[in-house]
Design a protein that fits this description.
The protein is mainly alpha-helical. 74% of the residues lie in helices and 4% in strands.
Length: 178
């Protein structure tokens, strides 16, 4: 699915450039590139948001770790040879109920964290776009294209280093999002 989105984006960019080229034939067509992920990672507001997301995840992880420890203790109690059959059966019932709750809680926490990540990406993508637009307009670029990353799919395969405005976008992002 990610490859399909990238392919569509590349096709749209290519079509856009082909459509604009006759209109811009007498003008200089300036394009810049940036790394949106780096803008978020290097900007002050982006770092704060990533730290908040990390702290949120860590609080959830502490709860999961406590549940995990409780399950381990209950499992050790079940293995205790001194328990009567009825006490052992009761502990096994408690263990199963806690295990079910643990699994539900983990799934819920994972969904919550993924939702927060999606919300953050959506919010910060708009903010990065505004900063990139300001840099592009100020510098006279016709387009600023996100390079993509090695982790996902690299959108721009080659560019001259002078075309990379990531640092300028970080500065503009910080200026707009104090």
């Amino acid at each position: 699915m990610q490859r399909t989105k990238v392919a569509c984006a590349l096709s749209a960019i290519g079509l856009w450039l082909v459509m604009l080229s006759p209109a811009l034939s007498d003008e200089t067509f300036k394009v810049a590139v940036m790394n949106q992920q780096l803008v978020i990672e290097q900007s002050k507001a982006g770092k704060r948001a990533l730290e908040e997301l990390k702290a949120y995840s860590m609080t959830r992880q502490k709860i999961i770790n406590a549940d995990d420890q409780e399950l381990k203790e209950l499992q050790l109690a079940i293995q205790d040879g001194k328990l009567s059959d009825s006490a052992k059966q009761e502990k096994q019932g408690q263990f199963q109920a806690k295990l079910d709750a643990y699994q539900r809680r983990m799934a819920d926490f994972n969904r919550e964290i993924q939702q927060k990540q999606r919300e953050m990406v959506a919010e910060y993508s708009k903010k990065v776009q505004a900063a990139a637009q300001a840099v592009g307009e100020k510098s006279g670029f016709s387009a600023v294209i996100d390079k993509g990353s090695e982790a996902a799919i690299k959108i721009v395969l080659y560019h001259q280093p002078a075309l990379d405005v990531t640092d300028q976008v970080v500065k503009e992002f910080d200026r707009q999002n104090k």
